[in-house]
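In the laboratory, one determines a bound structure by crystallizing the protein with its ligand and collecting diffraction data. In a computational setting the workflow is compressed into a single prediction: the sequence and the ligand go in, and a structural description comes out. We illustrate the idea with magnesium ion.
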Amino acid sequence: MPQTLATHIQDQDLATLLSAIATACVQIESRIRTAGLSDILGSFGHTNIQGEQQQKLDVFANDCIIAALKPLATVAAIVSEEDDEPIVFTDKPGAKYIAIFDPLDGSSNIDVNVNVGTIVSIQQIEAGETATTLKAGNKQVAALYVVYGPSTILVYTAGSGVHGFTLDPDTTSFVLNWEEMKMPPQGPYYSANEANIADFPPAYQQALAGLRDGTLLGAKYSSRYIGSLVADFHRTLLKGGVFLYPPTAKAPNGKLRLLYEANPLAMIAEQASGAATNGTQRILDIAPTEPHQRTTFIIGSRHEVEAITKLAAGK
Ligand code: AHM
Ligand code: MG
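The predicted complex, in structure-token form:
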């Protein structure tokens, strides 16, 4: 019998929670796969708190995940990229989980049939905290992402290794095909939006030049940039290398969001022997101050993240 997501997770409450999210992702996948046939491409006509145009599929994905989580007795609150404020379920005494997510990451790729994804972070309310207490990523109890691509892949960690599943479209279940994923300690690719390079701080420019000419880590790198964080991260997890979204004068904290983009991927990276920093600090140690805050981001294989962080921190 192949192992599915539901049978793989030991903790029953967490298994129920992550399975509900996976079921929502199956609905999202089905809508993405046939997007051109169902008038769901394009803009929804509303701007979210990030100042970004919401796409119809952003809204659909958000609604699917919320509908899956709302009925669960264990879910106390939801924080979504697409909702300005956290949604707190006041009618669930004893609910312990906060689900924090980007329902559809890589929105700019939706209309052109390029990979997009879903990213989820799970936190647990501890004594003395409320459903809206914001905590550092090192308090996450689980993290997962789904990449909608040629295959639809789900990768999760619940704090003991990273495991990968492929969606079987016939049974609509996620079937285990990578147990204990490990990121190579060094890899062949770097991934950054190089159109912004003139605006990167000199240390980042130096790091990229050193990857290109082989002086940073003794190998000459190739570049890959999809523009969907989940897809760029998934390649980095499997093949090794580094993804970076540096600061610029216009965006001193970069573009990516700490709570539902950087934190869950950083937990997965670390669990797979990789690393993630903001240039000076481990991502998972950053104390958040607001749900939608941004962070600069360096994530991937240990050697690249260490070398670039050293330069970025001026050491
Ligand atoms: P989104 O959540 O609105 O889709 O934005 C996040 C995306 C990431 O998937 C990707 O890494 C990044 O934005 C790309 O940004 P840029 O176009 O500036 O390179
Ligand atoms: Mg997004």
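The radius of gyration is 19 Å. Keep in mind that any predicted model is a hypothesis to be tested, not a measurement.
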